Amino acid sequence: MDVTYEGTKREIATDKGVLRYHEAGEGPPLLLLHGSGIGVSGWRNYRGNLERFAEHFHCYILEFPGFGVSDPVDGHPVVTAGSSAIRFMDALGIESAAVMGNSMGGVVGVNVAMKCPERVSKLVTIGGVGPNIFSQNPSEGTRLLQDFADAPSRDKLVRWLECMVYDRSLITEERIEERWQTANDPESHKTLAAMYGSAAFEAQQRAMVNAGLPPYWSMMGKVQCPTLLTWGRDDRQCPPDMPMIPMRLIPNAELHVFSNCGHWVMVEAKEAFERITLEFLLR
């Protein structure tokens, strides 16, 4: 099975631009949704896991609009990511799929599962979902993202990357350089600034309060599908008090916490994460 970047790369035209993705494997559909952050992409999130999951599933790694790969669209990145997931499934004729989401991708997966429950058969989240209960908000990782969004530099990128992991040896020069190259893409930085720039971040908080809208996590009782919440015990981007509310509100949820592991569970606890997630998805 070819699970290389070039061998899996695909694109599909939609009424709101081209969506790019990676595809491998046969079986039931599994949609993999990436997180936010500096120089992020779906391929970089899941390239190390694709081969294992493709042994059992027809895997689709979607590249969200505005992160330098798929065509950008107007709107807040989290909102456009959710609509792009539905648009992608419609374009490929995928009626329902298991969904895996890292951080922001998990938030997108939760929102799709709440709004279109018939489209999500099972849900796996990797950090990201829920509110800070005991930990500071914004978290250490989010503050580092704000610093970079306001005034980008390579040193700030390195500090944020090192905050993502328990084992800093994972932050190689190659990983730093590929993230830095993408971070210099104007569209990619525009998206990062819209999510984490100081002015934009404060405006979003004010808008939510002024609109009187309930936070998405308060409505997670609407998630009907079986849900696996996965977390790194040493996550400094989304600290491990955050899954307490989703674990309580989602009717059929379970939580697995990986020790000596930061925010990138699928990278840092790769083998254990794949084993536990496959058991859940194949159950």
From TrEMBL:
<dbReference type="InterPro" id="IPR000073">
    <property type="entry name" value="AB_hydrolase_1"/>
</dbReference>
<dbReference type="InterPro" id="IPR029058">
    <property type="entry name" value="AB_hydrolase_fold"/>
</dbReference>
<keyword id="KW-0378">Hydrolase</keyword>
<dbReference type="GO" id="GO:0016787">
    <property type="term" value="F:hydrolase activity"/>
</dbReference>
<protein>
    <submittedName>
        <fullName>Alpha/beta fold hydrolase</fullName>
    </submittedName>
</protein>
<feature type="domain" description="AB hydrolase-1">
    <location>
        <begin position="28"/>
        <end position="268"/>
    </location>
</feature>
<dbReference type="InterPro" id="IPR050266">
    <property type="entry name" value="AB_hydrolase_sf"/>
</dbReference>
<dbReference type="Pfam" id="PF00561">
    <property type="entry name" value="Abhydrolase_1"/>
</dbReference>
<dbReference type="GO" id="GO:0016020">
    <property type="term" value="C:membrane"/>
</dbReference>
